[in-house]
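Pipeline run #58 for the internal structure catalog. This entry was flagged by the ingest filter as a single-chain record with no existing model, so it goes straight to prediction. Upstream metadata was stripped on purpose; only the residue string is passed forward. Reviewer on rotation: M.T. Logging verbosity set to normal.
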Amino acid sequence: MTGPKLNEKSFVAGERSGTKASAKYVRMSASKVRAVLDLIRGLPVRNADEVLQFTDKEAAVAVRKVLASAVANAVHNDEQDADELYVRACFADEGPTLKRFTPRARGRAGRINKRTAHITVVVDRMDDDRIEVVQNREARRTAAGRRRGAAATGAAGRRARVERSRQRAQAIKGGEDTESTVSEETEADDELVDQVDEDAVEQTEAVTEGAEGGAGDESQSDAGDSDADAKEDN
């Protein structure tokens, strides 16, 4: 959602509402700053901050500071909620140009223009419908992150075991003192083996008890058959 590009005159005249912050005499050209401002115009504040954080441009650092100042002004001065703000307008005006010279051939002088810019960011509260959409999107993103974390938990144990095996192999190959290393790295494996042994013992005892019970039943049935045969002979 992008709105019309505003400048300092339109904002001062009261054509748009919102809370602004400005940085004056930033030592970079306004054209370079505008390339970064086009990336965040109309975005929610949180998304705009993420975009600026991972933008590989020098102007992104200055713009991010101005955005943080605008959000702070809205929160402390206008009592707004930071999660409900978005970048309503942002623009960069040209500041004074510092003229410098460098020597050239044949006694000439080459001119160097060191340009400056005035950066302005305006934030405002989103409407209720857009706030609901943004909150639902964040909830879905959080739920997806939890599902990915739960899925990765099962593979974490296997990765840890593989890493311990690699460290053990490297220690043996390097001729290091492997006694303490192996004892520390295989502690979890020993606990797992003990647990498996206990489960095996329990299963063996259960099978033994079942076999003894079956043998007792068979002996009782054999005794009953013998008594029946004795009665028939009589």
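catalog note: Confidence is low (pLDDT under 50) at residues 1-5.
catalog note: The chain has seven helices and five strands.
status: ready for reviewer M.T.
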